[in-house]
Every structure is written in C-alpha cells, then in structure tokens.
Amino acid sequence: MSALMDIWHTIHGILTSADWITLALIAVCVLAAGFAIQGLNSIVSATVLALVGFAILVFARAVTMGGHAFAAYAHTSWHDLLGLQMLTLIAYGVIFAVLIAVVHVIRSAVFR
C-alpha cells in the first residue's frame, strides 16, 4: 500500500507543481493520443508515444522560450533523462495512460 501512496504523492506533486504551459503541453499530447487510438487495447503504445511527444515539446519549449543553446541543452536533457527516477516515470505514465483512456472513452461516446 505504501508503494501506491508513493505513486499517488508523486502524481499529485507533478500535477500541482507544474506551470500552465507544461499542463497545456500534457493536454495537447493526451488529446492527440486519445483521438489517435482505435481502441483501449493500444493504450500502452499510445502512452509511450505521448510521453516521447511530451519530452520533445518540453525540449522545444526550453530551447525556444527559455533561450537555451540547442546542443548544450540536449546534452543536459539526455543526462537528466538517464538520471530520472523510476517513480517519476511511473507517475507520468499513469497520468498519461489515465488521461488518454478518458479522452478515448469520451470520444467514443460522443462520435458513435
């Protein structure tokens, strides 16, 4: 039970400490993945692709809006990815999978 609480606290921390632009990037990736999948049987692959898309959008945001140099920030981001804690990755995966499933279910109910 404590592992589930750790995941829940990490999810809560991600969603409450993120700025509005990051939340908008999450929403864009989730909506795109939710509309792209044909059924809930492809939720895992949609989640992985949405997470990759989110990482690319966050990188593009940092390079364009943050004023970071492309090569230096790519090197730093790669090392940050290698040092990413598994709990954080699981929390992002759960957030994306649940939101993609919700978008897909709503899309399926509306467009019948």
Architecture overview:
By secondary structure, the chain is mostly helical. Helices cover 83% and strands 0% of the residues. It has five helices and no strands. The protein has helices at 2-17, 20-36, 43-64, 70-82, 86-110. The longest helix is centred in the C-terminal third of the chain and has 25 residues, at 86-110. The termini are far apart. The mean pLDDT is 92.
In brief:
With 112 residues, the chain is mainly alpha-helical. It has five helices and no strands.
Structural class: mainly alpha
Mean pLDDT: 92
Along the chain, the helix and strand elements come as HHHHH
With helices defined by DSSP (H or I, 4 residues minimum), what is the helix count? 5
- What value does the Rg take, in angstroms? 15 Å
Oligomer: single chain
Secondary structure tally: strands: 0
Q: State the shape.
A: globular
β-sheet strand percentage:
under 5%
> Which percent bin holds the helix content?
over 70%
Task: List the defining traits of the structure above.
single chain; 112 residues; mainly alpha
Record the SSE blueprint.
Blueprint: H1 2-17, H2 20-36, H3 43-64, H4 70-82, H5 86-110
Helix pairs in contact: 1-5, 2-3, 2-5, 3-5
